[in-house]
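Subject: Protein record for review, amino acid sequence with backbone structure tokens
Concerning: The relation between a protein's sequence and the shape of its backbone.
How to read it: Take the token row as a discrete description of the fold.
Enclosed: The protein record, placed directly beneath this head.
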Amino acid sequence: MAHRRTHHLRALLAVPAFRRLLAVRLGGQFTDGVFQAALAGSVLFNPDRQATPSAIAFAAAVLVLPYSLVGPFAGVLLDRWSRRTVTVVTNLVRAGVVLPIAALIFLGSEGPLFFVATVVVIGLGRLLLSGLSAATPHVVPDQRLVTANAVGGTAGSVAYSLGLGCALLLLQSVFPAGDAGYAGIALLAPVGYLASAVLTRFSFARDELGPDEALPHRPGLVGEAAAVVRGMVDGVRHLGRARGAAYAMGAQAGFRLLFGVLALAMLLLYRNRFAGDDLDGVPAQLGLVFAAGAAGVLLAAAVTPAVARRVGGWRWVVGLLAAVAVVLPVFGLPFDPLLLVVVVLVVNVAGHGIKIVVDTTVQHECADAFRGRVFAVNDTAFNLAYVLGMVVASRFIPDDGRSPVLLGVAAVGYGCLAVGYAVIAGRWARKAGDDIALRVGTMPVVER
């Protein structure tokens, strides 16, 4: 199995177009890590600002909800416009918008303008990732999609974690503590976004990343809006026919709902319980948590392609959900910092493993003309569920994050999700006679 996995990876990395697309993803997500480290430091770990459960949930809602509500409409754009152009333009806009954000951080002015600008940067980043996912089948053949999603998603997550880590290291060694240091970190982001835009522009032809058949252009604002609405209806109808993808997306949304509860508890525990009065040390303490998360992503990427091919994607998702349900009470209830690192590791293995299966199922089942919309709908559900979990948990969780009841509810929720998904997804896989457990065919990897 190890030899086969290595063969898949070598065959994938032998495709020049995939390597270029991967480089674009890595540059963007590394820069996202740097930028969001500056945001987190200035908002969450600043001793001059209060971080209650409601405040954290509100900040998450403000940053995530605006794009999540318009995400499906952005997906139509991915099926209308050149995805190379979308990637270039979004990176250029992000590079420009980060500049006033850095100035606002430096001035300590984190009001409505700060949140609106941040929403733009983060929202465009999500649009960009949806576009890269929709473009992947244009650079690798179908039988390599599982491995491509594992490599792309994993490398991107690791790059994001490295960006966070590098920002924390710079804060400890180069930049001063406080708003000036966080502003300096934020000013590094435009360099990365510009580099990603240039790389995309000169690495791909205009239509190389799709879509294969662009939707017809409707003149005028009303015509464009009507086309967007009709396109979304078509996308939902298409997802109704691709039931395996719909069920997998539903399972991932359920996972993210409960993950929002766990994320809020983790932030509060490290900020308000484990740190005491020393907030300056919180980012360093979270370094171990980030390392565990990155290790979980790597482990998921290493095992998911082989396991999904052997047992089927839906069975692997069921196993991952069940594993989280078991680990949460065993390692989480003591509320010990070191044991919680184990929880983070397992939850990240599950989250990334499920994401690989979901992305591959959408690419496998959905026609290219609809992929952008389906990925955007998935991204919306992914983020709305996360925020909803945070908001609901904020009503019940104490300020220090220690709530055995909520942790138990999350564990039971993951268990119920595993059982429910096993029933409906297994029934559909048997009826359709299809899953992503594909045998590697003899079709060679296409060089582009």
Summary: The mean pLDDT is 84.
